[in-house]
Amino acid sequence: MTREKDGDEEYISAQFELEDYMDRNRKYELGVKYLKNIRKDDGAIYYKALILIFVNQYFGINDLDASYDSIVEFLEGTKHNSNDFKEDIFDDIRGDALEVAKKYFYQDDYIKSLNLFKLIEGSYSYQSSCYEKICKLKMNVETKKIGEMSNDLKGKVEEIIDILKLDFLPLSEDEQAPERKLAHYTGTYTTNKLLSKEENKDKPSAFRLNTINNVNDPSEGKLLTNYLDSVKENSFYKPDFDEKLHAFISCFTFNHDSLNQFRLYGKEDNKEASGVSLVFNKDFFKETDTQSSMTNISIDRTIKNVNNNSDKEDSSVKRIEKQSVMRCVYIDPTSDYIHLAQRNRLTFFREFGRENLEGGSIAKAEIECIEYENYIEKKTEDFREAFVELKNIYNGAIDKKRSLNNLSKEDSAEIDSLLDMIILPLKYLVKHSAFQEEQECRMVYITSLDDPRVQMDFGKFLYVEYEPEVKPHLDKIYIAPAATQYQPYLAKLLCGTNSLGKKIKIDLSNNPYRLPTSH
Fold this sequence. Notes:
It contains 16 helices and 13 strands. By secondary structure, it is of the alpha+beta class.
């Protein structure tokens, strides 16, 4: 078959069919040979061929340099015109490019590594920023050691993030995952907006991640740096304000029916215990992506490309995609006390009631609780060990920086900035032990205030909206003692099923609470 005889369309189609046949028979080099018959002047189809060439070279032939050439050509060629491709294709190819860039980084080929990091910074801005700065340190003889220690620090942060992430997996084959559901406490007004469509809108209001400046813990963001700097004090601070890297969070807990949290957070018009607890199933959160990609941190040099698939004006609100959820860590600033957010014993006994194991008198709740406690104990020990190592690496880098006599103030500040950026993913997961009872988990999204996704209710809130809708991902709603009158209305709003095809349950809180008497 030739172009001249059969025409461009038939010829190109045949090359893809031949590549597919070679791929199925593991003859990857021949597959690449056929794909290279497609030319740049064939238009968008050429870049689709480049994707397959890269896949064959990287995953099949294991030719790193050849795969580098094809992926660079693809990313450079589609940089300003991506309309012919779905965004998930770019997500996949940039994810692969990240791994290629890392391989060159660890081979000390910083030129190729830096080139790739610059090409993918739109999707991996945090990773790219860190690696670019580390590359530059390692390329300088005087700062090479600090570059190596910075990279070790980054690896330790990723290890800790993997320890803290919720994976929603069962602990044994015949049981459900003990951490499969998380609750969010809020008021009835907000709940109504999240579940019902407003007039002239095609869907309910979006779930929000709110600015870190609104939290009730004044030590937020300070505890981690104090720990690393060995500052043992229990004074309180105002949260840092950083318009370039500003944190937005949403809080969840393992305690679905907590009287204390109903009194603090589940209230309406400042009336205690007058709200609800929204219990979400695991589908509300991101599960599959590895935490080390850190896509929840958006460096401001790339945020202007939020909608890079269209040059048209888009007045619709930009929302953030599914995010992973992490358990918080509670520490006491005056000691070495560490506690990871977890379910408490009461939640197991409330889940299983008086149910016993089949054929025995042992409470199932007791057995499930012991198995879970062993799981948490192992996770806590892993965290504690990694946390100590994190501190040692951090302090080692600071000491090494101080020992460099010829380091300018600007370069010293740049190193400090890099170290702060590396530990940023942990900064808002470390909380004061005074809040331990809340057993909190968080979604954290960090971006610049220039990000078009950041919205404002002036004088009250800065926030970003979350893409997944609330109702399809609800498992249950608990109604606080002072909000029981809303039960029929909520039942009406929850008619239908969730994303798992199950009816959403409504329960009144099991907690006794004497309602205030009116005067």
